[in-house]
Design a protein that fits this description.
Blueprint: H1 3-19, E1 23-25, H2 26-31, H3 36-44, E2 48-52, E3 55-58, H4 66-75, E4 80-81, H5 83-89, E5 102-107, E6 117-122, E7 130-133, E8 136-139, H6 141-148, H7 154-166, H8 172-181, H9 188-196, H10 207-218, E9 225-230, E10 233-239, E11 244-249, H11 251-254, H12 257-272, E12 276-281, H13 282-287, H14 289-307
Parallel strand pairs: 5-6, 11-12
Antiparallel strand pairs: 1-3, 2-3, 4-5, 7-8, 9-10, 10-11
Length: 308
């Protein structure tokens, strides 16, 4: 192979890889004019590294999004990233590790068994369910939430929905419409139950906050915003119209003198801005839930009177 031909082959390979997160397929290379001899030579020299059958990595390191792109290419035309992997791409849940399989949905056919890929066969993947992220076919946020409902816990589903709503990727009305239209799908009961709650889904980060949120719902108190930024400070829970916030303190994060002083300084700044802060500890929520609930109910009632 001459130098000119070799250079031309390299340009073809890298042009395709540049558009696909460092990943190419055998079919793409042959269609672009790369000879079988050149392809096999690069495989032997480890310049093309097999990821799946007929799917190769160009270079030594797999770029960010390379796993998802490779999985889509391996599953053929019409394949899309879905379920937990789609939630990862949309940043609705904490990132998955590289050891986790990539969820891929294919319509009307068996996706086959491939290492590192978890296939999902469906019959109802429509154009309205499809989107792209950095060139990678993926289910839309709405479809992703619907799919997630059958594969994650209720808490993770609420976290994903809260994140999607906060970032204006979905609306609750959109989801209610989808749930009504696809009432027979797996996971629909869990999503319907979540949507029936009168407030928005809450994005919480700790077990203490989860327990506190459950307590609010059990007491049928007004739903707060969760983990929201106000006046440059992030608050665990905020009743904006009442001018009331609640912080859930855990000893491990609030046991030092400097942290104690920073918290009080922040509370004073918020009070100047019209927000009163009440603090509850993990022990109070765990051991005295009804006392916490009564205290909060009285504070909300007084705040409502002040507002009116």
């Amino acid at each position: 192979m001459g130098c000119t031909e070799s250079r031309s082959t390299e340009e073809i390979i890298h042009r395709i890889a540049l558009q696909q997160h460092g990943v190419v397929t055998r079919t793409q290379l042959l269609a672009a004019g790369v000879s079988r001899r050149a392809l096999e030579g690069r495989l032997r020299a480890n310049r093309l590294r097999p990821l799946h059958r007929g799917v190769y990595l160009v270079g030594p390191l797999l770029p960010r999004r390379g796993r998802e792109m490779a999985a889509v290419l391996a599953c053929g035309a019409g394949a899309v990233v879905s379920h937990r992997s789609a939630a990862d791409l949309w940043e609705l849940l904490p990132p998955l590790g590289d050891a986790s399989p990539v969820d891929i949905t294919v319509q009307g056919r068996d996706g086959g068994r491939r290492k590192g890929i978890r296939p999902h066969k469906v019959t109802d993947l429509n154009a309205e369910d499809l989107a792209t992220i950095e060139g990678i076919p993926v289910t839309t946020p709405v479809r992703t939430i619907v799919d997630l409902a059958s594969v994650v816990s209720a808490r993770e589903l609420e976290q994903a929905l809260a994140q999607a709503e906060r970032r204006q990727l979905v609306t609750l009305d959109e989801l209610r419409g989808v749930v009504q239209k696809r009432s027979g799908r797996p996971g629909t009961p869990a999503l319907r139950a979540l949507l029936q709650y009168h407030g928005s889904p809450a994005l919480t980060r700790s077990e203490a906050e989860d327990r506190f949120l459950a307590l609010i719902r059990r007491g049928r108190l007004p739903a707060p915003e969760a983990n929201v930024v106000f006046g440059g400070h992030e608050l665990d829970f905020l009743w904006r119209s009442e001018g009331l916030a609640v912080e859930v303190d855990g000893f491990a994060f609030h046991s030092s003198r400097s942290q104690f002083e920073r918290d009080r300084h922040r509370d004073a700044q918020l009070l100047v801005g019209g927000i009163q802060v009440i603090r509850f500890t993990w022990r109070q929520i765990e051991a005295e839930p009804y006392a916490v609930l009564a205290c909060l109910a009285q504070a909300l009632a007084r705040a409502g009177l002040r507002t009116r």
